[in-house]
Design a protein that fits this description.
Length: about 600
């Protein structure tokens, strides 16, 4: 009997302990820890998203390039919709009855999947339409308005440069879980490059629902509400008025016009033509299909994403390398009788008519092909190297120190690297040990396999302006809340000694300013500006030659460096030279002088695109 009592007593103690644990746990869940209550409340709460205004984009002088305007989305909670006068709602929202009926049919079909979610019913209605809806909203339970911002462009400058925003796709959401369906993101240009700073952070307000799903008071007096954080504003390096003028000069032409500030690497203007007008950006989705099918490819930013042979502007690099390698002196003269014969069978790389023989600076002034064939031959047959391959590898290393054959590292997206072919490439193509200077003679004048982007060519103009170094080109300035990589403040030196540049600058000056002496760039002469330049005519296998021109000004303490690259436009002095010179004159003088008015009119009114 005593043993039975002991068992009964132990059982009572066990049941007491279990009961105490259960009561303690219940007290903790219901009284102390509110997370469980919050989870339960989530089933009777609605969250209203607050979208932040996207950061504003300014030019270097504070000119507004991209701003915001308010629009509204009409939201619907399908389960909260009772009887609906579809005709009345369609009238209020300035849409069709069929649109409303199709939407409601979709919601009924997927009722269980949608549940109590709030969905976008109609996107981006204008404030006037929203005000009409707000006055009648009481007639449409389950519907409400939500404020959004859209991009607006008060100044027509830099459509391809600025880029556009679009609604996130399913593919984008899969890679960026921090976004939700209906969000917008920067898809191209600056909008894409600075998405993290521009987008801001969303906020929300939480409301309590009653048993019928109707929204009531703010949950816990807004304790869990989060305010939206506006995106950071971006200050660009662009000069809005210069950008606009550059676009006008390039209208009707296919190519690029890039201007840099040599002392900083800041991009003053970047024009890709044909391009996107900013009016299109505000409602890009409506125009995308047409633009994508346009054979002139206005969506394609040629300034950073197109690679071309640089043509005769490249002769400057070969001259500088020849000076550095001590196989060339400025006083050396070479003949040119209509070109350079580079094979025993008489094959010739042709040249235009000019006096002969020439020294280095006169060869630059007249853009002599023959002269720079001799220079390149001296580089590749330099006796300090054992063979052509070794000399070529050295030459390639020198060229790449000018920023060619690799991405410059700009903060602008979609930059290509161009191409400076390696010795391995020629070994594969011609077989090792079976190629010499005559095999690759076209590299003497920036042809053959050499490819460069207009941004790289403009950067080369800045290197010439700086006499041997550059700052990596960039389009964003540091400002409050926006940092730029320290690399943009660092000088990037070429492998050519800075002292060598002074030996070729006179040739660039004479090309523009030595009137009547056979200079190829006299068309770019502007009294008082001391423009230094070099023309290029790049062979094009797909049609007429491309017109190329680089320049900087003034000669001492340069403030601007420019590259113009016009496709299928002939000689460098025909179109690229005038366009670049007008841009320089506009930037430095603020206006075009009377003696260049006719030239400006010709450039502004001529259309070269068929």
């Amino acid at each position: 009997m005593e043993q039975l009592n002991n068992r009964y007593f132990k059982l009572l103690i066990g049941l007491g302990v279990v009961l105490a644990i259960l009561l303690g746990r219940l007290f903790y869940v219901q009284i102390i820890n509110e997370s469980y209550k919050t989870d339960a409340d989530n089933n009777s709460m609605s969250r209203e998203m607050i979208y932040p205004p996207r950061g504003i984009i300014y030019d270097r002088n504070g000119k507004l390039l991209v701003g915001n305007r308010i629009c509204y989305d009409i939201m619907v909670t399908p389960r909260a919709v009772t009887e609906l006068d579809t005709a009345a709602l369609a009238h209020v929202l300035d849409t069709t009855v069929d649109f409303v009926r199709d939407k409601m049919k979709y919601y009924r079909t997927y009722r269980s999947r949608i549940g109590w979610q709030t969905l976008v019913f109609l996107k981006q209605i204008e404030p006037e339409t929203y005000m009409r809806f707000a006055e009648e909203q009481f007639r449409f339970p389950g519907f409400k308005g939500q404020e959004r911002t859209l991009r607006e462009y008060p100044f027509n400058a830099g459509g391809n440069l600025l880029g556009y925003t679009s609604e996130v796709s399913a593919e984008y959401l899969a890679e960026h879980p921090e976004y939700r369906a209906g969000d917008y993101y920067g898809r191209t240009g600056l909008e894409a490059a600075r998405e993290q700073e521009l987008r801001g952070k969303k906020g929300w307000r939480i409301f309590q629902r009653d048993s019928r799903g109707r929204t009531k008071d703010s949950y816990k007096d807004g304790e869990y509400d989060v305010e939206a954080e506006p995106g950071h504003d971006i200050v660009t390096t662009i000069d809005a008025y210069l950008q606009q003028y550059g676009q006008a000069l390039m209208a009707g032409k296919k190519g690029s016009l890039v201007a840099l500030e040599p002392s900083t690497g800041e991009i003053l203007s970047m024009v890709s033509s044909p391009g996107i007008d900013v009016d299109v950006l505000a409602d890009f989705g409506k125009h995308y299909g047409r633009l994508r099918k346009d054979k002139n490819m206005p969506l394609y930013n040629r300034a950073v994403s197109a690679s071309y042979p640089p043509g005769s502007v490249f002769k400057l690099i070969n001259g500088l390398i020849g000076l550095e390698d001590e196989v060339l002196q400025p006083w050396m003269q070479y003949p040119c009788n209509g070109g350079y014969v580079y094979t025993s069978s008489g094959r010739k790389l042709g040249c235009h008519a000019h006096r002969s023989p020439l020294n280095l600076n006169d060869a630059i002034m007249t853009s002599c092909n023959g002269y720079f064939c001799y220079v390149f031959k001296s580089i590749l047959e330099n006796p300090k190297f054992e063979n052509t391959e070794e000399a070529y590898t050295h030459w390639r290393e020198m060229v790449m120190s000018f920023g060619f054959g690799q991405k410059l590292g700009s903060d602008f997206p979609s930059e290509l690297s161009g191409n400076i072919p390696s010795a391995d490439y020629y070994n594969r193509y011609y077989h090792k040990g079976r190629w010499r200077f005559p095999t690759i003679v076209s590299l003497s004048i920036g042809q053959g396999e050499i490819l460069a982007t207009p941004l790289q060519i403009a950067n080369f103009a800045a290197i010439m302006a700086n006499r041997g170094y550059y700052y990596i080109p960039h389009v964003v300035k540091a400002s409050e809340g926006v940092e730029i990589d320290p690399k943009y403040y660092q000088k990037q030196y070429t492998l050519v000694d800075t002292l060598q540049f002074a030996k070729v600058i006179p040739g660039m000056w004479k090309a523009v300013n030595a009137l009547g002496e056979g200079g190829t760039a006299n068309v770019a002469h502007v009294p008082g500006l001391d423009i230094c330049g070099k023309t290029g005519t790049a062979q094009n296998p797909h049609g007429k030659d491309n017109s190329v021109f680089i320049c900087f000004a003034p000669r001492d303490n340069p403030r601007i460096a420019v590259a113009a690259y016009i496709e299928n436009a002939g000689f460098g002095a025909t179109w690229a030279g005038p366009i670049a010179a007008l841009l320089v004159e506009k930037y430095l003088n603020g206006e075009i002088g009377d003696d260049h008015r006719d030239l400006e009119r010709r450039v502004l009114t001529t259309r070269l695109i068929p």
